Amino acid sequence: MEKRRAGPKLPATLIVSLSAALALSACGPTTQVILLPNPDGKVGRIEVSDKRGTQTLDKPWQSTETSVLTGAQGAPKVVGEKKARTIFQHALEAEPLAPATFVIQFKSGSADLTPDSLKQIPAVLAAVKIRQSTDIIVSGHTDSVGPDEYNRALSLRRAKAVANVLAAKGIPRGTIELTYHGKGNPLIKTPDGVAEPRNRRVEITVR
Predict the structure, then answer these.
(1) Domain span at residue 155?
(2) Which string of b and e fits 172-188 if b means at least 16 CB within 10 Å?
(3) Most buried among 16, 138, 175, 188, by the most CB within 10 A?
């Protein structure tokens, strides 16, 4: 993989439970901590330690309360999504949106976007606007037809073509990072020499 970039890149943030706990701890001596699922639905685990010991949260929407003075206020319990969103409304509203991904297809052997792919551009622009994004990754790919050097160059041309379309719609070039992979990282694995249209693509990630 090769990449090119101009402009700043902002660090991603994923501290929902901590944000919520801090928001409630300012309201009194008791802090409530809740474990939220990731955007893909998966759940990690966190440990909450105080003078009474350590409690583990490993279920979605599981919560515990602890006090600086007395420690844990009982065993962890699942409060449910609806109640959790009510309790932590302000913290959740401040949570960054999950990245949005778009796949742009190309005509064989060229950097010309297909007509259907051009119809996706308004959705990309909307994703940039709603996230106020300054971190857009445009990754070019090819199928396995042709020499490696040719495919690397073609994947870069495709990435540049998409970047040019976005720039023409008002997206600052400094917020766009270009990467190009040639036939590497195919969406559909094939032997060499296979003209797989789903691999002739650019992936756009808006963070």
Answers:
(1) 97-206
(2) eeebbbbbbbbbeebee
(3) 138
89 plus 145 within the same structural domain: no
pLDDT exceeds 60 at position 15: no
Question: Three-class SS string for the chain?
Answer: CEEEECCCCCCCCCCHHHHHHHHHHCCCCEEEEEECCCCCCCCCCEEEEECCEEEEECCCCEEEEEECCCEECCCCEECCHHHHHHHCHHHHHCCCCCCEEEEEEECCCCCCECHHHHCCHHHHHHHHHHHCCCCEEEEECCCCCCCHHHHHHHHHHHHHHHHHHHHHCCCCHHHEEEEECCCCCCCCCCCCCCCCHHHCEEEEEEC
pLDDT score at 91: 73
Residue 31 domain-assigned (yes or no): yes
**Which of 5-14, 25-34, 178-187 shows the lowest per-residue confidence on average (mean pLDDT)?**
5-14
- Contact between residue 106 and residue 200 where contact means Cβ atoms under 8 Å apart: yes
State the CATH number of the domain containing residue 146. 3.30.1330.60
Considering the domain architecture, whether residues 63 and 122 belong to the same structural domain is answered as: no
40 and 107 together in one domain: no
Of 70, 93, 116, the residue that ends a domain is: 93
Q: What percent of the chain has pLDDT over 70?
A: 83
Per-residue pLDDT band at 25 (split at 50, 70, 90):
very low
